[in-house]
Inverse folding.
């Protein structure tokens, strides 16, 4: 793969520039230019010596924008419904980038206020009446020119990605290679690239059905499954939880509190992996791209460290990590791949249709194309705002302030993460913690990651269990049920290895918090690379025969506060 030296403004294959000796980068900048003669976008790297003329006609090209996507007939109907003079668009080419439409290469900005103020019922009616026959031919011709003009770039992208796939998967048997299939355009491209590169149409695909998918995503996943009958296609879905019921108890997901990802996506996918591979390591190909967000720009093309990978038994590789939207569409359109119909309607991203990260434009589209779902969600948000005491619930929701919500303020569930404890008055190095339910063997099991459970070493009359250090077999903790006037149910935790008191006390508090607050978010299941943690039927269980005492599930570095619910429900009063 070609690398880039920013100091010398040149490409090279070396990790250090041969001219200046500076480290090179793997993200080569690309821009989109426009040929007014051919009315087509040209994807060009201005720093690499790419021609500054149109590959089709040889004419002059001018800078257009940083990235671009096609506009299909269905979205053209939407534009006609929004613009004042829709008839002017009939024979024109239209491409899009963010909030701009490029109509025959001329930018037309749609302000955010349009999406907030436009009557969606009126727009829906105009779209219903619109005939897109002529637009179809215009779009087909425009796409054909785009593919011809950028075929050299496509070949470069395809060859590099397939080489990367072959290289990174060389140490894995083909049956341990997985495609993460989301139903979006990026995973569509990755799936095609991986199958071509490895010559393996039977590659395992895992589709995470969050239960909040676009209807078109479910339809596309079913089409993909039928069109690829040899592929091993697994659907991961949390059928034990109801999104609205959970959201009512702990609040709707917000930008910084997306509990839904763990509960309805990562957790169910982990269960599929555990069922297929148990303790085997796997390589998962993702459709992650660096340009999608600030967070993703910090990722690496290959990730396998515990801090970065959400599901611990996998290494993650991203073949199209450096691609732009224009590159993804170039691949799809040039190879005539089927794709999610939501993109034809004007969505630039698909995922959970009610995600708090969705733009105002995406919400506008959903109110047109998923009217019933959108109204149900809006009603739920307003009711939630009322329940937590917002003085103007409608404004709170319509202004998007619900997306910035943090913590469990106003929620009764917040009390479950407020760990109440007292220092024991009869023993040193001991605390008494309040429990939300009676002391049970289930609670003792929570302490398995800290060390080996040894109930036989404890005092049977007080139902004491001793925890042994996994390396030295020396006692480190004593646990027993306890009675205290302040608490209905309680547990006494005594630190036996006082040299590690702070660490042992912190881990113990984490596990008591889990016991009190667990809502089956499945984060702990995903965090355990050995498949030792399972959460079924409301019971949190650690298989002591599988637990390696790695302590990731009780380490703040990997699980802040020891429990995801603590992050989502925490208030100023939380201990």
């Amino acid at each position: 793969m070609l690398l880039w030296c920013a100091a010398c403004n040149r490409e090279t294959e070396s990790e250090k520039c041969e001219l200046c000796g500076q480290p090179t980068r793997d993200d080569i900048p690309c821009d989109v230019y426009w040929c007014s003669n051919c009315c087509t976008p040209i994807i060009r790297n201005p720093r690499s010596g790419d021609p500054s003329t149109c590959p089709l006609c040889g004419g002059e090209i001018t800078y257009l924008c940083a990235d671009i996507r096609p506009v299909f007939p269905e979205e053209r109907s939407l534009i006609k419904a929004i613009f004042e003079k829709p008839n002017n668009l009939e024979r024109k080419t239209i491409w899009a980038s963010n909030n701009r439409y490029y109509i025959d290469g001329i930018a037309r900005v749609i302000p955010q206020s349009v999406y907030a103020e436009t009557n969606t019922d009126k727009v829906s009616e105009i779209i219903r009446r619109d005939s897109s026959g002529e637009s179809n031919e215009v779009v087909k011709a425009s796409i054909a020119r785009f593919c011809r003009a950028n075929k050299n770039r496509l070949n470069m992208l395809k060859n590099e990605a397939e080489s990367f796939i072959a290289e990174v998967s060389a140490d894995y048997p083909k049956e341990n290679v997985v495609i993460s299939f989301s139903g979006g355009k990026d995973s569509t491209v990755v799936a095609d690239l991986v199958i071509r590169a490895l010559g393996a149409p039977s590659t395992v695909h895992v589709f995470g059905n969050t239960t909040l998918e676009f209807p078109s995503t479910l339809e596309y996943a079913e089409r993909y499954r039928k069109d690829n009958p040899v592929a091993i296609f697994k659907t991961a879905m949390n059928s034990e939880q109801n999104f609205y019921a959970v959201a009512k108890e702990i609040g709707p997901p917000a930008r910084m509190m997306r509990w839904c990802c763990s509960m309805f996506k990562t957790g169910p996918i982990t269960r599929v992996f555990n069922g297929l591979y148990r303790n085997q390591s796997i390589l998962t190909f993702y459709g992650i791209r660096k340009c999608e967000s600030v967070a993703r720009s910090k990722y690496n093309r290959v990730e396998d460290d515990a801090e970065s990978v959400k599901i611990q038994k996998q290494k993650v590789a991203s073949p199209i990590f450096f691609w732009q939207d224009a590159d993804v569409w170039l691949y799809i359109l040039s190879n005539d791949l089927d794709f999610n119909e939501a993109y034809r309607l004007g969505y630039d991203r698909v995922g959970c249709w009610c995600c708090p990260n969705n733009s105002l434009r995406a919400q506008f589209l959903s109110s047109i194309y998923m009217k019933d779902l959108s109204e149900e969600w809006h009603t739920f948000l307003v009711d939630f705002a009322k329940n937590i005491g917002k003085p103007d619930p409608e404004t709170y929701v319509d202004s998007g302030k619900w997306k910035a919500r943090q913590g469990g303020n106003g929620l009764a569930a917040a009390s479950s993460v407020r760990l109440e404890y007292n220092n024991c008055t009869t023993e040193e190095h001991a605390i008494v913690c309040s429990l939300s339910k009676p002391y049970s063997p289930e609670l003792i099991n929570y302490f398995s990651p800290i060390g080996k459970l040894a109930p036989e070493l404890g005092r049977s009359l007080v139902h004491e269990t001793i925890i042994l250090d996994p390396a030295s077999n020396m006692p480190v903790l004593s646990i027993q049920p306890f009675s205290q006037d302040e608490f209905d149910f309680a547990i006494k935790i005594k630190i036996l290895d006082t040299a590690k008191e702070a660490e042992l006390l912190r881990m113990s508090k984490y596990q008591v918090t889990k016991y009190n607050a667990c809502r089956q978010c499945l984060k702990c299941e995903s965090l355990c690379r050995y498949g030792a943690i399972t959460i079924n039927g409301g019971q949190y269980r650690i298989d002591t025969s599988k637990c390696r005492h790695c302590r990731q599930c009780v380490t703040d570095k990997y699980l802040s506060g020891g429990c995801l619910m603590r992050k989502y429900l925490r208030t100023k009063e939380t201990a």
